[in-house]
């Protein structure tokens, strides 16, 4: 509680506004694993009402993921402290793998660029035993592999629970379009936000909804904010030890007939004195999977992925011209 209050006032100091904290529900992973009806119902409610929730990983089934997270954080600290040349050895030849420096996408404030650098590892490539990575990080492939394997089990357990809760059968079940041996854009993304404040040129992570199906997110530090469906104000997601933050992405929202919510979120700088590390496992559907998007078009998962990354790079004035950045969530229409 003490940490919570201190961080809140820290934020108010930098932002000059009262910091509101989002009252997110917590879902227990161990109970989902055994398909306990009450927990599965709670999961469905979270995904329908806001699309953001905590996942409690402190039980025996989730603790290994928490260990994987700590090991990955060590690897990230080593990587991000390397020279720009070492980190940028392969650049980001495609969205699946590589490194991108600060300032590649639009930032959280109008007319700024983003304030993070990012390392990406493709699940398909790790699964095939041939990830494309900068040389300095190749020794850490085992750490990526373990993190990805744990994340895969956890996110697919949630997909199975959601399919059950929505009474989906056969090919309509969400897992049926997330088969491991079918190509997808599923990616592990590691972020380092540089210490900045809101008046600098490269700051935070712009508002958006996630592209894919489910995002498993870890950060021990403040900065993540959500805008609940049907509202227009930002609330902080408090870091919670022993928990991941899960959010529904556009692809799962579309696959559910827009019943599940892919909530708008962003990252603002909280502490101008320290780096912020976060880890996101983006579970995405098979590339060929088709659904109706926020503009009413039939589109494949890979096409939505590619178009959305193009929009992330555009200046803010261009981004507002269609609904791609926020997946159609900004209209405020909440499907209950
Ligand atoms: O860094 C974070 O906490 C969130 C990152 C995020 O929302 C994203 O990359 O989609
Ligand atoms: Fe996101």
UniProtKB/TrEMBL annotation:
Residue ranges annotated for the Fe2OG dioxygenase domain, each copy included: 183-285
Pfam annotation, one family: 2OG-FeII_Oxy
PROSITE patterns to which the protein is assigned, alphabetical: FE2OG_OXY
Coiled-coil regions listed: none
GO molecular function: metal ion binding; oxidoreductase activity
SUPFAM superfamilies: Clavaminate synthase-like
Keywords from the UniProt entry: Iron, Metal-binding, Oxidoreductase
One GO-annotated biological process of the protein: small molecule biosynthetic process
Gene3D superfamilies, per database record: B-lactam Antibiotic, Isopenicillin N Synthase, Chain
Family: Belongs to the iron/ascorbate-dependent oxidoreductase family.
Protein name: Putative 2OG-Fe(II) oxygenase family oxidoreductase
Organism in which the protein naturally occurs: Ampelomyces quisqualis (Powdery mildew agent)
Higher taxonomy: Eukaryota, Fungi, Dikarya, Ascomycota, Pezizomycotina
């Amino acid at each position: 509680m003490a940490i919570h209050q201190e961080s809140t006032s820290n934020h108010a100091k930098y932002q000059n506004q009262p910091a509101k904290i989002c009252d997110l529900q917590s879902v227990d992973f161990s109970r989902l694993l055994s398909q306990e009806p009450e927990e599965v119902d709670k999961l469905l409610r979270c995904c329908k009402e806001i699309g953001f929730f905590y996942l409690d990983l402190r039980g025996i089934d989730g603790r290994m993921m928490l260990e994987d997270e700590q090991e990955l954080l060590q690897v990230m600290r080593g990587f991000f402290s390397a020279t720009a040349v070492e980190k940028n050895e392969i650049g980001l030849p495609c969205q699946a793998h590589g490194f991108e420096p600060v300032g590649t996408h639009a930032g959280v404030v109008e007319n700024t660029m983003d304030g993070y650098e990012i390392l990406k590892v493709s699940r398909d490539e790790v699964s095939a035993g041939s990830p494309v990575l900068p040389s300095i990080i190749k020794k850490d492939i085992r750490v990526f592999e373990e993190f990805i394997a744990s994340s895969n089990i956890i996110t697919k357990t949630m997909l199975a629970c959601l399919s059950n809760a929505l009474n989906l059968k056969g090919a309509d079940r969400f897992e049926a379009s997330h088969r491991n041996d079918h190509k997808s854009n599923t990616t592990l993304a590691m972020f380092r936000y540089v210490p900045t404040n809101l008046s600098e040129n490269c700051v935070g992570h712009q508002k958006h909804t996630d592209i894919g199906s489910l995002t498993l997110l870890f950060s021990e530090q403040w900065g993540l904010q959500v805008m609940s469906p049907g509202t227009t104000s930002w609330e902080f997601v408090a870091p919670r030890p022993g928990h991941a933050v899960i959010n529904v992405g556009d692809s799962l929202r579309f696959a559910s007939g827009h019943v599940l919510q892919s909530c708008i979120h962003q990252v603002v700088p909280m502490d101008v004195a320290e780096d912020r590390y976060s880890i996101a496992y983006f579970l995405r559907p098979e590339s060929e999977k088709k659904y109706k998007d926020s503009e009413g078009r039939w589109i494949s998962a890979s096409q939505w992925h590619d178009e959305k990354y193009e929009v992330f790079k555009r200046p803010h004035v261009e981004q507002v011209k269609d609904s791609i950045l926020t997946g159609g969530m900004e209209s405020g229409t909440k499907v209950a």
